[in-house]
Structure formats: C-alpha cells, structure tokens
Design goal:
The chain is of the alpha/beta class. It has two domains: about 10-345, TIM Barrel (Alpha-Beta Barrel); about 355-450, Glutaredoxin. Helices cover about 45% and strands about 15% of the residues. It has 19 helices and 13 strands. It has helices at about 10-15, 35-40, 45-50, 50-65, 75-80, 120-135, 145-155, 155-165, 165-190, 205-225, 245-250, 265-270, 285-290, 290-305, 325-335, 340-345, 380-395, 410-420, 445-450, and strands spanning about 70, 85, 95, 140-145, 195-200, 230-235, 255, 275-280, 310-315, 370-375, 405-410, 430, 435-440. Strands 1-4-5-6-7-8-9 form a seven-stranded parallel β-sheet, sandwiched between helices. The N and C termini lie far apart (about 80 Å).
Length: about 450
Amino acid sequence: MAEESEISGKENLFSVLRHEKTDTVPWVPFAGVHAGKLKGYSAREVLTDSDKLLESLLEVNKLYCPDGQPVVFDLQIEAEILGCELLWAENAPPSVITHPLAADMRVPEVIPAAADGRLPLILDVMGKFKAEVGEHTALYGLITGPFTLASHLRGTEIFMDTIDKREYLIELLAYTSKVAQEMARLYVEAGMDVIAVVDPVISQISPRMFKKFMHQPFSDLFACIREQGVFSAFFVCGDATKNIEPMCLTLPDCIAVDENIDMVTAKEVTDRHNVVLEGNIPLTTRMLMGTQQDNMKYVVDLLDALDHHNLIISPGCDMPYDVPVENTIGVTEAIRDTGRTRQVLANYHAAEMDLDAIELPDYANLEKPLLEVFTLDSSTCAACGYMLHAAERAYEELAGEVDMVEYKATSAENVARMMKMGIKNLPCICINGDLKFSSLIPGNRKLIEAIKAYS
C-alpha cells in the first residue's frame, strides 16, 4: 500500500486555524514590497505591475517555503479608490497624504467594485497565483480595517471624533465596515483562503473606546467573512495589549501582533478565547538589521516560550523592503528544524549596542520644548504615521514655539537611542525627554497642553 503523503503547508495552517493539534507551527512571511526586492523591482513597480508582482510572489514562495502567504500588503488600496491621494516610495508601500473627509463631515456611499483602482491588477494576480501555488500554500487577502480606513478618510480628526462627534464616527465606521466586507467578498471570490483585516490604528485607542465604537463593525466584518467559508485574522500593530481581549470578542479566527506585544501574555488571553495567535518577529532590530543567527535565536526562544497549540509564526508586520534574504531563510530553518537550529546556535552571542556613543540633548536647558517622535517607520506603519501627523499638527500650530524630530527604528543609531531612553513601545512621543504618549495618539488640544507645560 502506498505511504500517505505528507501534509501540505496549507493544510497545516488550516489545521491550526481549526484549533487542531499539529506537529509543526505554521510559518507566514509577510513579504509585501520585500517580494519586489527579491527580483530587483521597486515597491511602486511591484504594486502597479501584475507581471512583476506575480513573479515576485513566486520568488517568495520558492525561497521562504511558506505555509501561508499574502498577495499584497498595501493598506492604501481602498483609500485610493475612495479619493485619498497617495505619496509613492521606491522601497515602501505608498502613504496617504490627503483626507477627503478632514473638513467634510459626511458618510460616503461608494463601495469599491472589481473594476476600481488597482483592484483589476490585484484580483488578476490573486487568481494566477492561486493556480500556481494554491494546492500547497494558503493565500492571505489583506484588507484595510474599518478604523484605519476611516482614519485615512478623516485624518487625525478621527481621534477627536471619539470625543466630540461620536454619532458621526459610528456612522462612518459602519460605512468603512461595509467597504471591508465587499473587499473581503472580492478577495474570497478570487481564491483567498484567509482574509486578514489589518487595522494598525486599533492600538491607539482604549478598551472602552474599542467597546463603544469598534466592537460592532469588526464583529459584523468577521461574521461576514465566516459566512463565506474562509478563515479570518485580526492584524494590529503597536502596543495593543490592552485591546487583545476586546479583539477576541469580535470572533476572528486569529489575532496577529507585532513586536510591541509580549506573546506569552497575549497568548494567555487568546487561549482563553480559543483564538489563534500569530507573530511577532521584530521587523527592524532582527529582520532588517540583525544577523541570520539573531533571527534564528529569536524564533527558537519564541517557540520555547509558547505552547505551540493555536500558534503561527510570522514577522510582526509587513517586512521592510531591504530585509536580507539570509535572515528570512534563517527564520524558515528555525521553524522547520528547531532542534538542529539549537545546535547551530550553541556558540551564539548577541552583538551589544554602544549606548555610550549616543548623545542625548541637554533636556533641562533647552530654549523651547522638544518633541521627539519615535516610530517603527512612519512611511510604512499607519499608526506611526498618524502619531507623527499629530505631532506635526501641533508643531505647525505652535509655529516657532517648539522643536520636533522623528526617530525611525530603521537604523542602528536610532534603535540605540531608544534603548538609552528606555523606549519600549512604538510609536510614542516624548517631550523634553519625558515619555508622554505611548501607543495612544493624542488629540490636538491634549498634545498642545502637554507641550505648553514645558514652556
């Protein structure tokens, strides 16, 4: 009798999402624009050219042997269709630079259709990629979550809306949830196995605000996905620790988190609700700037710290464009053959950063208050972008009365600065060296009051 064939990566991932016991932990590399890097294409090329996108996705599949793989990681697709203007970059997804509803309190009626914006390209590639790898790899369709999409449309006003314009916000979120439901339907029709609702701005609100404004639209969205017979994931960036339980109560199959979250603590919550937890290899300190052994060690330690039931390993968010190939291959090996990886790491020693080389400002003797905004990368992280925008708005309003600088965690020097200042969660704002707002975007009045207290 012929031997039973080995289970595919796709079936392994499905088993985990069905909460079944498995022999191995699934691996899902969130290689968005990084896919283009593998074939020498810019971020813009890979997000606007179907042939280049498909070629790049196939290279990711070949090199990184994923159990699950996203087709596109771009949280501006819906916003572009709905009238937001984008700023394009060569090595990152585009960013939203105009907000149609910033000064226009209305609720749009348009719902994206298959012929709108870049959707024809994306849906075409989804179908072709499914035909190429769909038998052995589960495909993720990533849609922009209701709150982040509302933020794209409304701008930083959205955070004041939670206080001053609550009824309007509820109506706007009901609309953006309908947009997300239609995007999910289009992606399921194109063959996607998992719909990941990516909403990084969720980390910037309190559990009370989540319950009041977010529970219903997200519950409706995950119910809609479930009715279509596919799996769902709730993807959040930043320190969303406080919102893990409220997120579970919206009934996704999986919650995906980044490096700001302690996976052990989060898994205690997700296990109580029988929700899969996915994450959370650091994007910059490990994947971008670390060595192959740094990445392997992180993954081994993560696997050793966690119960493997209801667990998926992935980067904390969209992988930076320039992540060295060998680092991601090292992650793959650590997941696939953890025992041998431990042997490889027998003499591993992490490199130490020279914090003495970092000079901090003389905060006590500054001529005017100094706003320091610490981000993962405001050009690629929506929550970081809106934290920066909040600081920029206050900076412009207080013209000449305050200084401002952004430090992105995309360089070793900036990471060392964060370590020296004791910064643990991103994004955040410090004023004269004091941590004032961490993973909670302040309203304009509140930020200006905090700045003036240092004047």
